[in-house]
Design goal:
heterodimer, A: mainly alpha, MetI-like fold, 13 helices, elongated, B: alpha/beta, Rossmann fold, 8-stranded mixed sheet, 6-stranded mixed sheet, 23 helices, globular
């Protein structure tokens, strides 16, 4: 518990992570209680004059259909956050399974697995997601899957090297000598010891995943209108940017602030957990 | 003799996230000119902090709260070290005081040849021309007895062995004829035979140097103190508990801590045991074999890329055969690189043997696959060397001990809980410790947990791989005592791997001496230690610094262990043998044991010599 307090202290004393934390809490809170907070229905058209500038009635103005941008952004947080988290979860779980397995088995399996990772790394991950979407078709959940898939090589490589280090620790040898099976050793003994690393790289990647999904939605491959996903909102606001910039500025701003908060938090998390030093040594 | 260094009332403190901790309490001592002063204590007793305080090399979070360190230089000027500026301090370091560290590899710059590194020091401090400095450098290398000094000086640290590197470190320390050399565990990372060579060198230097260099020798090894030092200071928890002449302190220790420290040495325990019960030997000669290995080989291919086939192999274990009888402890002893750990791991098949038979309870397990082994593993367990790395840091002790029971379906969870708390009591820990995590325990306690984990499956056979060598002397004694009682209560048969001969002598029934993958001598403990036959065994025995016995003539063996990739032809020991015969060098000589007396086996090559 003492150590936990120290980590928390290191965390809160940093301005960046404190800001990121507060902002994220607000966003998550807004996303959960969207129906209560949002002044209007996100999909109700003509709640006010079309393309009206920000005012007390419409904090962030209205769009071309007269929908309240503020309400749409609050509902949009639900999409952006959840799709980001889900795609990272998908990527990190698959990457962990792949990385830990090839590291533990070693030998030829490791060599072939590592080469597969290298080949996948050859493609820019955004291109890889585009390719996947092109194959499986357009749609928000397809984009989530594509972005998650494209992040696997990155996760797998880091987790493989962390698992390799843990694998060399004598307590893993002790597990073998106690007659444990391979799956038990991987799940029960290697995985918990690389968990700090998994948390840190997942958090650091979350921002990127949110951006990638928003970008694909912006290109019209992900969320389809009228869904209030931030990327899609940016895309539909594009045409009116000259006379109604608020239809683009506010979704963009929230996207920016969310991603920045996540990154600040992740950055600080990696320092607070001191992930690199604590592999397998239990210093956390 | 005049005083060279006076430390008075030194208090050093460390600050951390958890608050500050005082590492030194009122340390005061003096070093006279030309004297070897030993600083002894267990880890954490403040030996190194003391030396770093003198050198001004304390880490940033440490501060000297109080105290004075005075150095008297060549002109008998009094210098207060603690008030010096950094620049002035640099002048003193190297010129007046120099240091030899424990780990010679990390203290030498890997990108410079060792000659350049010595030159740098000479030129920096003496301000003489390069040619003269070079002459001096070669002289220094000769002084520390490095063969081929001109050629060696052009080599990089990684090309030299550990013992050579430490000689280079000593040469650097001597470069400017310092008044004081601080040697912080300079031989602890080295093998006994290499350590013996270095101690011999230090002794020679001590007697020969006309400039009256004093040495502050920091060590945990009381044997070395006895051999080398004039006076000794015993430290405990940042305080000096005893100070005096070496002979006085060892023969009439005044402080109870010093007394305990000496009494916990295996050599004293052996003596005590011999006095107490001689009938120990008459224990029933149970001849039931638990383990019998035949012609075990283990060779590791040396990797050369993915696609190229490796042509060279590391010959880690070569043609090893022996039996272990029920309730007996077989000791495996040898220097690092002798293959003793590999052999241990091969026996319980953590490593697959290249060829040979492993008969465990009349069953040849050498060909068993992983699945088949998992059931047998319950019967054979291992105790690991490093108590810090051999426990999973994320499992509490209960989970660590519970998991094997559940995996092997030995008992139900609620029964197991009771059983586990009984075992944890047996290894000397309270039941409350079950809910704690490994990092909350000290090294000795962790090793107890490691032992409990090995016992929890009720094994019949245990391999203990250097179980006490990572521990302090007094903790070592406790853990050895524990193993001894457990051996009785749990009816254990053991293979005990160690590089420490006195621990082996205290603990084992039989000993096998390994050298470069071969067993060169094997005998019951009493026979081997009183009447060693093989020249390597003799050299090993005489290399160990002891507190009790006075050594008159040491058998020093030259050089380092050859590479196991290219072991010498014929008898593998011939390159270091003190009296090799012509027949040893021939390539047609095969290693192999011959029974010279009942149960006393010696390698053929050395039998011929006698």
């Amino acid at each position: 518990m003492e150590k936990f307090k120290i980590i928390l202290k290191r965390f809160l004393l940093n301005k960046g992570s404190a800001f990121g934390g507060v902002f994220l809490i607000l966003i998550v809170f807004g996303a959960i209680f969207a129906p209560i907070i949002a002044p209007y229905d996100w999909n109700a058209v003509d709640t006010g004059p079309r393309l009206s500038p920000p005012s007390w009635d419409f904090l962030f103005g209205t769009d071309i259909h007269g929908r309240d941008v503020f309400s749409r952004i609050i509902y949009g947080a639900r999409y952006s956050l959840s799709v980001g988290v889900i795609s990272v979860l998908f990527g990190i779980i698959s990457g962990s399974i792949f990385g830990v397995t090839i590291a533990y088995i070693g030998g030829r399996v490791d060599i072939i697995g590592s080469r597969i990772i290298d080949v996948m790394f050859g493609f820019p991950s955004f291109l890889l997601s585009l390719l996947v979407v092109a194959i499986i078709g357009v749609g928000l959940w397809n984009v989530v899957f594509a972005v998650g898939l494209a992040s696997i090589p990155h996760f797998a490589r880091i987790i493989r090297s962390a698992a390799l280090q843990v694998k060399e620790q004598p307590y893993i040898e002790a597990c073998v000598s106690l007659g444990y099976g391979n799956i038990r050793i991987m799940l029960n003994h290697i995985l918990p010891n690389i968990f700090p690393i998994i948390i840190v790289i997942a958090t650091l990647d979350l921002g990127g995943a949110i951006i990638s999904i928003a970008s694909l939605s912006f290109l019209g491959l992900g969320a389809q209108p009228p869904e209030p996903e931030w990327g899609a909102m940016l895309s539909s606001g594009r045409e009116y940017m000259r006379y109604a910039p608020w239809t683009m500025i506010y979704p963009g701003l929230f996207l920016f602030l969310t991603v920045m908060s996540v990154n600040l938090l992740g950055d600080r998390l990696s320092i607070a957990l001191d992930a690199r030093q604590s592999i397998g040594k239990g210093k956390v | 003799m005049d005083n060279l260094l006076e430390v008075s009332n030194l208090n050093t403190e460390f600050k951390s996230d958890y608050g500050s901790k005082q590492a030194l309490h009122n340390i005061s001592f003096k070093i006279k000119e030309g004297e070897v002063l030993a600083l002894v204590g267990e880890s954490g007793s403040g030996k190194t902090v003391t030396s770093l305080s003198i050198m001004g090399l304390l880490p940033n979070n440490a501060s000297i709260k109080e105290g004075e360190i005075k150095l008297f230089n060549t002109n008998k000027d009094e210098i207060d070290i603690l008030t010096l500026s950094d620049e002035k301090h640099n002048e003193i370091r190297g010129n007046d005081i120099s240091m030899v560290f424990q780990e010679p590899m990390t203290c030498l710059n890997p990108t410079m040849t060792v000659g350049e590194q010595i030159l740098e020091v000479i030129i920096r401090h003496k301000k003489i021309s390069k040619i003269n400095a070079k002459k001096e450098m070669i002289g220094l290398l000769e002084l520390v007895e490095i063969p081929d000094p001109i050629q060696r000086s052009n080599e990089y640290p990684h090309q030299l062995s550990g013992g050579m590197r430490q000689r280079i470190m000593i040469a650097i320390a001597l470069a400017c004829n310092p008044k004081l050399i601080i040697a912080d565990e300079p031989t602890s990372a080295l093998d006994v035979t290499i350590q013996a060579q270095l101690l011999e060198l230090l002794k020679k230097l001590k007697n020969s140097i006309v400039t009256k260099t004093s040495i502050l020798f920091i060590t945990h090894d009381l044997g070395i103190v006895k051999e080398l030092a004039d006076r000794v200071i015993v430290m405990y928890q940042g305080k000096i508990v005893e100070e005096g002449n070496v002979l006085d302190v060892f023969e009439r220790p005044k402080h109870s801590y010093t007394n305990n420290l000496i009494q916990s040495l295996p050599e004293f325990k052996i003596e005590k045991r011999n006095k107490e019960n001689i009938q120990n030997i008459t224990k029933s000669d149970n001849e039931k074999l638990i383990l019998s290995i035949k012609n075990i080989y283990k060779e590791f291919p040396v990797d050369k890329g993915i696609f190229k086939k490796s042509t060279e192999t590391v010959k880690a274990v070569q043609n090893v055969s022996f039996d272990v009888k029920e309730n007996k402890i077989l000791g495996l002893v040898g220097e690092s690189g002798s293959g003793k750990s590999t052999l241990g791991k091969t026996i319980i098949k953590l490593i697959e043997p290249t060829s040979g038979q492993i008969n465990f309870k009349n069953q040849d397990i050498s060909g068993f696959n992983k699945k088949k082994m998992q059931n047998i593993r319950q019967k054979m367990q291992m105790i690991f060397q490093d108590p810090f790395a051999s426990l999973n840091p994320r499992k509490n002790i209960l989970d660590t001990l519970m998991e094997p029971i559940l995996v092997h379906n030995l008992m139900k969870k609620n029964e197991a809980k009771e059983y586990i708390s009984q075992i944890i009591n047996d290894v000397g820990l309270p039941s409350e410790s079950l809910n704690r995590f490994p990092h909350e325990f000290s090294g000795g306690q962790r090793q107890r947990i490691g032992i409990a984990r090995a016992l929890v499956l009720k094994p019949e056979f245990i391999i203990a791989d250097e179980p006490v060598s990572a521990l302090d002397v007094s903790i070592q004694a406790q853990v050895l005592n524990l193993l001894e009682t457990l051996k009785e209560t749990y009816n254990l048969t053991m293979i005990f791997i160690s590089h420490d001969l006195s621990v082996i002598e205290y603990f084992c029934d039989e000993v096998a001496v390994m050298y470069l993958g071969h067993i060169v001598e094997m005998a019951p403990v009493n026979k081997l230690f009183t009447n060693p036959k093989h020249s390597y065994t003799k050299a090993l025995l005489s290399a160990v610094p002891k507190v009790k016995t006075k050594k008159t003539n040491k058998i020093l063996i030259k050089g380092d262990i050859p590479s196991p990739i290219n072991p010498p032809s014929g008898c593998v020991f011939r390159t270091r043998c003190p009296n090799p015969g012509i027949e040893c060098t021939g390539g047609d000589i095969k290693m192999g044991l011959v029974e010279v007396e009942p149960n006393h086996w010696v390698d053929k090559c050395c039998v011929k010599l006698d």
